[in-house]
Amino acid sequence: MLLYFLYVGVTYTFSVIFNSLFLVYTALFSASLFAVIIALTTFDTQYLASKVTSDMPRRGSAIFMFVAGLGTLMLWLSELIGPLMTGQAPANLGPYTTMFTHGFDSAVITPATVITGIFSPRRCLSFARSLVWPSSHRPPARRSRDSFSLLACISA
Fold first, then answer.
1. Do both 75 and 21 map to the same domain?
2. Coil, strand or helix: which one is 72?
3. Which of 2, 20, 71, 142 is most exposed, with minimal Cβ within 10 Å?
4. Do 69 and 143 belong to one domain?
5. In whole angstroms, what is the distance from residue 148 CA to residue 102 CA?
6. Number of domains in the chain
7. Which residue range(s) make up the domain with 124?
8. Would you say 114 and 70 are in contact if contact means Cβ atoms under 8 Å apart?
9. Same structural domain for residues 25 and 97?
10. pLDDT in tens, the chain (156 residues)
11. Same domain as 108, residue 78
12. What are phi and psi for residue 4, nearest 5 degrees?
């Protein structure tokens, strides 16, 4: 739910026409961003590691993540490819200068869901086991991969 409010806050702050609620949108964005950060830092990693087992079903959630991510990408690309090929502005651009939601979803949401789908079936158990070791003892590339694995474990 926090991620939904973060998404709405980002979208409203950066893509809604300026109006009297602009500061409310900005406050929603800021509050939800820091709430997500605080929530992610308060996970009981020992408990999570003890609950993740190798026999947990993950294939269905991985397929769902692939379909959701690629479906979102195809939806937004279908509205952008034609105008990009003809050099014209998209019909639904309206008063905006860019297609923020299309760009944000294509650059952040689609890769996050696809990467989560990749990590979900394979790495959930190994990620849970690695939680017992402090992240400072793992190389930076491993720590960033573990962040996506966390999403996969939560979504599985």
1. no
2. helix
3. 20
4. yes
5. 22
6. 2
7. 45-155
8. yes
9. no
10. 899 999 999 999 988 887 899 899 999 999 999 999 998 888 887 787 777 776 777 788 888 889 999 999 999 999 999 999 999 988 888 877 778 888 888 888 898 888 888 877 655 545 544 444 444 444 544 544 555 555 555 544
11. yes
12. -65, -50
pTM, two decimals, is: 0.62
In the structure encoding, which two tokens stand for residue 119, read together? Answer: 């990590």
Q: Are residues 52 and 104 in the same domain?
A: yes
Nearest to 109 by CA among 156, 75, 81: 75
Token pair belonging to 142? 């491993």
The verdict on 50 and 65 lying in the same domain is yes
Do residues 33 and 63 share a domain?
A: no
Cβ neighbours of 105 (radius 10 Å):
20
Q: ∠ at Cα 108 (87, 28), nearest 5°? A: 105
